[in-house]
Every structure is written in C-alpha cells, then in structure tokens.
Amino acid sequence: MTGGAIGGGGGGESSPASGAADVSAPGALTASSAGVRADALSEIGGGTSQDMAVSAVDVHKRFGRVEVLKGVSVDVARGEVVVLIGPSGSGKTTLLRCINHFETVDQGRIYVDGRLIGYRTDGRGRLVEERAKAIALQRAEIGFVFQHFNLYPNKSVLENVTLGPRKVRKMSRDEADEVGRTLLTRVGLDAKVDAYPVQLSGGQKQRVAIARALAMQPKLILFDEPTSALDPEMIGEVLEVMRDLASEGMTMVVVSHEMGFAREVADRVVMMDDGMIVEHGRPAELFDRPGHERTRAFLAKIL
Amino acid sequence: MAMIATVGLHFDSHFFWTSLLHPSSAFLQGLWATVYLSVVAQFLATVLGLVIALARRSKLSPVRALAWGYTWIMRGTPLLVQLALVYFGLAAAGIYRFSNLTVGPVTIPGEVQAAIFTFTLNEAAYMGEIIRAALGAVDPGQLEAAMSTGMTPARAMQLVVVPQAVRFVIPPLGNDFNAMMKNTSLASIIGVQELFLVSEQVSSVTFNTFEIYLVASLYYLALTTVWSVIQAVIERRIDRKWGIERTRWRRSASWSRRWSVIDAGLGT
C-alpha cells in the first residue's frame, strides 16, 4: 500500500524513493536570512518522482529567526494516507501548508503530481515564485481541510460546497448544485443543504468542509488537525468520513493527534520533532516499536 | 392658543404648524436636496472608500503611503473649510470654476457639484478607514479557505472577503450617513439650496426664526430616524442571510424580559 514510498530522514538527507532526484549539494542552497525567497534557491535535478502524489525535497522554512523546517524530505505515493505526528511546534502544520504553497519555502522544493509547487524557473534559470493565477490553479487540485473549518458564514451549506466549482471550474449552478448535493449526501448532511454554518455543530461543519474540498475533485487532500477543534463526541463522525475517503483511495496527508485513527487508517506515520522528520513507518511498527527516543517520549505523553 | 405668553418669548404656533405640516415647495425642494446630496455623496464615498481601503492593504508601499496621506489630509481638515476651498478657492485661483451642468433633462448647479465633490472626498477618507477595519475583521482563514479551492487572492477577496466585510461596514456606515445628512447643511455657505439655507431664507423673510429652525430640526430628525429604521432592516436582513438569530428583548410568559438567543460564534 505504501507503494514503495519512503520518506527521507531529517537533516537534508535525500529521498531514496525519488530515484532521479539528485539533490545537489546542500551548500549551494543558501538561505541565510528570514527574507530569503525562492530566487535564492538553486536548481535541483529536474526528474523528480513522477509517480508520487507529493514529493518534498529538503524543505527549509523560517519564520523570522526561527527555523521551523530544517530540511524535510518526504514522499507520499498516490492513494497513500500519511499521518504526521509530533509535539506542537515540530513543524507538522507548516510542512502541510508548504505543500499547497500557503507558505513559501526558503530552500528545497515540493512536487505535487510531479509538478513543482509555487515556483517556476525564470529566464535566467533561477527559481521565482509562480504568478498568483498559476498558484491558484495548482491549489485547485489540492484539497485543504482546516482545524477551524473556515466555512463561509454568509453562505448556505450548499453554497459553501459549490462556490469553488462554480467560480473556479466554471460549472453551471445546476451542475454544481448536483455535485454539491451528492457530496453532502456522502458526508451524511443531505438534510442540511440549506442550513447556515452557524446552525451546525462542529462535526457537521467539518464534514461540510470536507465536502467543499472534495467538490474540486482534488488529487490529494491535506488535513490540518481536522478534529482538534471538535468536542469529543463529534470526532468520530469526522474520522468516519475520512476513513471512507481513505478506503476509496484518496491520497491524504493528515496532521493529527488521533493515534487511534492513525493506527487504523494510515499507511504510514511520520514522526516530526524540531523541524525534522525523526522517523516514519507503518503505524503498527512505529507505535509498538518506536526506533527513536523522541518518538517514545512523545507517544508516552499522549497515549 | 396662538402664542405662548412668556416675557420676551414669541412663538407663532400657527406658522410653526403650517411650516411643519404643509411646508412650502421651496422647503420641500430644500429637503430633497439634502436627501440626494447625502445619498449620492455617501454612495460615491463608499466606492472610493473601498479603493482607499484596498490601497492601504497594497503590497506596494507608495500606494499605501498615498492612501494614508489622503486619509490624513481629509480627516485632518474641517469639512467647512474644504467646501470653501473647493468652491471659492479653486475659482479664485483660476484653477477650476464649478458651473451648471446639464445632463439630459436635469441641470446640476455648480455649487451642488462642488458640494457632492467635497462631501464625497471627505467622507471617502472615513469610509476607507471603516472598510479597512471591516476587511481586517474578516477571519484570515476565510481568504485561505477560498484560496484552497483554487481562487487567486484577488478573486477570494472579491467573492468571499468583501461580501463578509459588508456586515461589519453597515453599522459604522450608518453612523457616518447620519452625520452626512446633517453635515450637508454646511453646503449652505456655498449657496446650495438645501434644507438649512431654505430655512435661513424663510427666517429672514418672515422673522419666524425660532419656528422655522425648529421645523428644520424636526425634518433633520425625521430623516435620521427614517435612516435608523432602514439601517436596522438592512442589518437584520444581513444577519438572517448569515443564519443568525438577532438579539432581541422578548417578553416571556411571566412578563419578565430576557435575552433571546444571542448570536453564536460568528467566525467559524
């Protein structure tokens, strides 16, 4: 199920799975200060794992003086469910937000479906940030589910789901409504199509948010702590929807503290700490026989 | 009945009631001028205010500085002085003279153009601040949510953020429009035949000064009252559109007053 995908370790180690990804000397990739952007990046070999849904190569990210990601490399195969775990501040969410270019990266690069995300090569062969339009097109293929749902409060449940298809995919209202109703039925909210977000429970809101992401027919969906803001009794219904998605073959990268979900649904669990990947592996292995002390300590605290 | 017999105080109640209930056509025209001056200027100021608010959020620092400077000057000088400067000042310096403009069947007097122009520019500075605050009040997660479905930042602003900001704009806009209707009386100094100038003219002809200004006050009060009602209706309609139950005093069975459902968390 993991499709041979192996995430790289921390500290700029290259990813063996991406055979062609010859990561050039890290010394050439300089990110000396907070302001360093893509144009400071040097070109890395072109042919990166085309068969991977996500391929992150030596990703560095800095907020001011704090280096939040210190060279993270990880691959996600198509149809794979990867759960990112780790203590808060370990960089899980930042990594997730880099994958759809909500955050720029200071060094390294991220490919989704074999295409570089957020950057292009300019006339002089340097990497520059893509134009807004091109970034938007890339994001349309990547679903994102937020911790705090971020439903549009001034729109009905159905409108929340159909806005993207109508405005970005130029779908007609009738067609979009049909797609929306189908998806809302799928997440068990067909009775709520005309409701407004304020009238929904947290669990229902998150299920609408998942339907909204699905409406764009994404190649993968990123989940940023999708159940952290929920009351305990509502966590189950959201995880249920996610479990269904996983079983239907959706590629998912999930930042979560739900170890039960990770153990049951994840193909692979990636443990992060201090901006680096500590270890990764099948959930059973990682949870039962963690290879690193930091993983053991983290699991001991939360389990 | 006709007079209040207080020493030194003279009140022509017949004149008062006639002016109030059967105003002259000149008075009604003045009232109309007050209304349309306010509505047109407020509308244009809102549009210009949006531009200023967006400019203040621009990535380009000269654009931000320009918008800031505009706001600084417009809010920092008196409206009355601005009116005089635009109408008398520009003409005196030979820069621009506002003259009557005929568009189809209607003629817009020069002083009315100057008044609309000045009120718009002045109010736009305030609207810019109001809209800027309203845009800032919309949860940044809304922009990200829209962008996650493939919208560019500009499109996400247009389709998701700005419509939500409207809810935060209405109450302070209502406040400003209330002030606008009263401030149009300042246009009398450049000769705009609005409610106050007409009243002044009635006063100087009839010497019923107290009565006519009292009538004018009541008409201003009526205008602002009507506006409060309209504003409340708009606010309620927007809240309903968001599925929010309004806070309202409601009598329970025991006749005691209690709060009804209070608007639950807006953001998420």
Polypeptide structure, described:
The complex is a heterodimer of chains A (303) and B (268). Helix content of chain A is 31%, strand content 23%. Chain A is of the alpha/beta class and 303 residues long. A six-stranded mixed β-sheet of chain A has the order 8-9-10-3-11-12, with helices on both faces. In chain A, helix 3 (157-167) crosses helix 4 and helix 3 packs parallel to helix 5. Chain A is globular, with a radius of gyration of 19 Å. The two termini of chain A are 26 Å apart. In chain B, 69% of the residues lie in helices and 4% in strands. In chain B, strand 3 and strand 4 (257-259) form a beta hairpin. The longest helix of chain B has 33 residues, at 209-241. Chain B is globular and about 75 Å long. Chain A binds chain B through residues 100, 102, 132-133, 135-137, 139-144, 146, 148-154, 156, 163-164, 167-169, 195-199, 205, 209, 212-213, 215-216, 229, and chain B through 139, 141-142, 144-155, 159-160, 163-164, 167, 238, 241-244, 263-268.
Structural class of the helix and strand makeup of chain A?
alpha/beta
Helix content of chain A: 25-40%
Stretches with pLDDT under 50, minimum 5 residues of chain A: 1-48
N→C terminal distance of chain B: 63 Å
Rg of chain A (C-alpha, Å): 19 Å
Please work out how many helical segments of chain B DSSP would assign.
9
**Distance between the amino and carboxyl termini of chain A:** 26 Å
Give me the CATH superfamily of chain B.
MetI-like
Counted beta strands of chain A: 12
Main β-sheet description of chain A: 6 strands, mixed
Work out the strand percent of chain A: 15-25%
The chain-level structural class of chain B is mainly alpha
The helix-strand sequence of chain A is EEEHEEEEHEHHHEHEHEEHH
Q: CATH class of chain B, please?
A: Mainly Alpha
Adjacency order of strands in the biggest sheet of chain B: 1-2
Shape estimate of chain A: globular
Order of helices and strands of chain B: HHHHEEHHHHHEE
Q: If you compute it from the alpha carbons, what radius of gyration of chain B comes out, rounded to the nearest whole angstrom?
A: 23 Å
CATH names the topology of chain B as: MetI-like fold
The largest β sheet of chain B comes out as:
2 strands, antiparallel
